[in-house]
Amino acid sequence: MKVQVKYFANIKDLMGKDTEDIKDMNSITVGELWLNLTKDMDIQIKVLYAVNQVYVSKDYKLNDGDEIAFFPPVTGG
Amino acid sequence: MKIEIIDDKFDPWQSLVDYKKNELQNDPKIGASSIFLGTMRDFNEDYDVDAMHLEHYPGMTEKYLENIVQTAIKKYKLIGGLVIHRVGLLEPTDPIVLVATWSDHRDSSFSATRDIMESLKSEAPFWKKESTDKGFRWVQPVDKTESSNEIQ
Hints:
- The complex is a heterodimer.
- Chain A is α+β, with helices and mostly antiparallel strands.
- Chain A has one domain (3-71): Beta-grasp domain (Ubiquitin-like (UB roll)).
- Chain A has two helices and five strands.
- Chain A has helices at 9-15, 30-37, and strands at 3-7, 19-22, 48-51, 54-56, 67-71.
- A five-stranded mixed β-sheet of chain A has the order 2-1-5-3-4.
- The model of chain A has no long low-confidence stretch (mean pLDDT 96).
- By secondary structure, chain B is α+β, with helices and mostly antiparallel strands.
- Chain B has a single domain (2-23, 31-139), classed as Molybdopterin biosynthesis MoaE subunit (Aldehyde Oxidoreductase, domain 3, Alpha-Beta Complex), CATH 3.90.1170.
- Chain B has helices spanning 12-23, 60-76, 106-123, and strands spanning 2-6, 32-39, 43-44, 47-56, 80-86, 88-90, 95-103, 126-132, 135-138.
- In chain B, the strands form two sheets. In chain B, strands 3, 4, 6, 8 and 9 form a five-stranded antiparallel β-sheet that branches. A four-stranded mixed β-sheet of chain B has the order 1-5-7-2, with helices on both faces.
- In chain B, a hairpin with a 2-residue loop joins strand 3 (43-44) and strand 4 (47-56).
- In chain B, helix 2 packs antiparallel against helix 3.
- The mean pLDDT of chain B is 94.
- The chains are: A alpha+beta, B alpha+beta.
- The interface between A and B is medium-sized, with 23 and 33 residues.
């Protein structure tokens, strides 16, 4: 299956990109995807998950075509 | 209800006049208008701040703001609700966010405006990056408004 990943704020800085497509992946949770993407990095900051523009927990199971976003706690207003 | 995310300076007072006149048609049932305006400071904690970049998640941000305002409209039986939020490059004194609600009596508009603002700060995906006298830094949420969506 294939998903689109988006990064925002300091997560974008750490990843060095704002978006990427992940292809040929097995069915996994969003938390597992985050661990895979950052397995060679030492990231100590909090991350939130959104799938198809809705907050989800790390146990959310991904589906083909999902839009996934990783970002830090929000600071608007 | 009106939600706007804009990348240029705006005049909050003119926006209020325009919304009440054009969207609410100066509804004579309105007995109370409550407004919150957030503006950019030139300091934060121990830093002098000369500029700020506000980033958002296009699509998701609008979706959450609409849901937050709709929830308040239903809960408090509001006559109108307006949220305008800046993105892009801001300078000190620039308006960041305008939240305004209109209702028949004061209690509902006071409470609704506060509810909308607190939900915006904990749910709407915006992020501030400050240009300070010690370099750039991403703003960290304070405990009171830390996202209710944190799941790690």
